[in-house]
Amino acid sequence: MTDLDPLAQAASSNEHAAFDTRAIRTGHRRTAEREHGEPIFTTSSFVFESAAHAAECFQNENGEFNIYARFTNPTVRNFEERLAALEDGERAVGTSSGMAAILSTFLAFLEAGDEIVCSQSVFGSTVGLLNRYMSKFGVKTTFVDLHDLEAWENACNEKTRILFMETPSNPMCDVGDIPAIAEIAHRHNARLVVDNCFCTPALQQPLKLGADIVVHSATKYLDGQGRALGGAVVGNEDDIKQVFGVVRTAGPCMSPFNAWIFLKGLETLRLRMEAHCANAMALAQWLKAHPAVERVHYSGLPEHPQHQLASQQMRRFGGMLSFEVKGGREGAWAVIDHTQMISITANLGDAKTMITHPATTTHARVAPEARAAAGITDGLLRVAVGLEDFDDIKADLARGLETLAS
């Protein structure tokens, strides 16, 4: 017995279909109403046919039957199946935010006495989660240079359970060698977890490169318009079953409405990422020639130290970049304050271009010495390049940069 309407017809999993087809078709199961678009199941619970049916559903530990929306909901399941197909994973679980995805992953695989090796170039909240909260429960974290494979190797021991990395990293856009670090993880019987937020599966599929688990802030590019909060964890069936157990019990779950928004975002994901990449490349090339700019961090530039690696494991170079200006914090703030169109906000992955000063926003709670080790200077600005006309983006940034160049 299944919990779906007997007249429901499951859309093909499109296992062998191209990326765009899977992004539009995978996971939708039409109900008896024969709807063309995916419905939103805004219900907290589901009705059973009998006491025996209820018992059967509750005995299932995999979330296959609709019981209670904290851990089973058809709209959320649709999103999970579609994202798993795009990441080439066996299964995904949706969460309430990107940080909830990371926390749920840690809770699923770590216990007191375990250790994590993490690249030092990660989102500030990830650093805070590890240093202030996971440490309270006896989990030790060692931070290493993303590019130093010897440091990754030396930091691992018999207690290491997870190697965690962002690539490209936030906010420096550094690129890590996923296959090489995966090999190190597996040699030490640990899992490699990759935050794929900046690239999305449209540009990079870490599971194909050797990673065990991929985490996402769906809030960013998967949505694409800054409308909703959400996260996801993708991997093999056994691993994601353990993460699902955390979400089911602790409740950091994705709402059905947000899942529906992310489904709509996935439909245009590759097309949007292509446009983000084109604008970002053009902006990086313009910035590096500007006299007020000291350095541009974008892996699409040939002079970027990991340009060749990025070319090998990414389809294109992404919509995020950072750059350093003259004048330290005062200069950086002047550039921000002279903008008229670009949004001053710490989000990313939106159709609208956004700018922020990492040292005083996203990484403000990171210790100054840790910021310095990660390359985050007071003159660094991060730009999430949007989909506006490139000339308008350039003109808006030029207002502040010209005051520094004079």
UniProtKB/TrEMBL annotation:
Gene Ontology molecular function terms on file: carbon-sulfur lyase activity; pyridoxal phosphate binding; transferase activity, transferring alkyl or aryl (other than methyl) groups
Lineage top rank: taxon: Bacteria
GO BP annotations, alphabetical order: 'de novo' L-methionine biosynthetic process; homocysteine biosynthetic process; transsulfuration
Family matches, as Gene3D superfamilies: Aspartate Aminotransferase, domain 1 (3.90.1150.10), Type I PLP-dependent aspartate aminotransferase-like (Major domain) (3.40.640.10)
Database matches in Pfam families: Cys_Met_Meta_PP
Keywords noted in UniProt: Amino-acid biosynthesis, Methionine biosynthesis, Pyridoxal phosphate, Transferase
Region (Disordered): 1-36
EC number(s) recorded for this UniProt protein: 2.5.1.-
N6-(pyridoxal phosphate)lysine, modified sites: 220
Top EC category: transferase
GO annotation, cellular component aspect: cytoplasm
Reactions accelerated catalytically: O-succinyl-L-homoserine + hydrogen sulfide = L-homocysteine + succinate
Cofactor(s) needed: pyridoxal 5'-phosphate
Pathway: Amino-acid biosynthesis; L-methionine biosynthesis via de novo pathway; L-homocysteine from O-succinyl-L-homoserine: step 1/1
InterPro entries: Cys/Met-Metab_PyrdxlP-dep_enz, Cys_met_metab_PP, O-succ-hSer_sulfhydrylase, PyrdxlP-dep_Trfase, PyrdxlP-dep_Trfase_major, PyrdxlP-dep_Trfase_small
Subunit structure: Homotetramer.
NCBIfam families linked to this entry: O_suc_HS_sulf (TIGR01325), PRK08133.1 (NF006003)
Family of this protein: Belongs to the trans-sulfuration enzymes family. MetZ subfamily.
Role: Catalyzes the formation of L-homocysteine from O-succinyl-L-homoserine (OSHS) and hydrogen sulfide.
Protein's name according to its UniProt entry: O-succinylhomoserine sulfhydrylase
Lineage: Bacteria, Pseudomonadati, Pseudomonadota, Gammaproteobacteria, Oceanospirillales
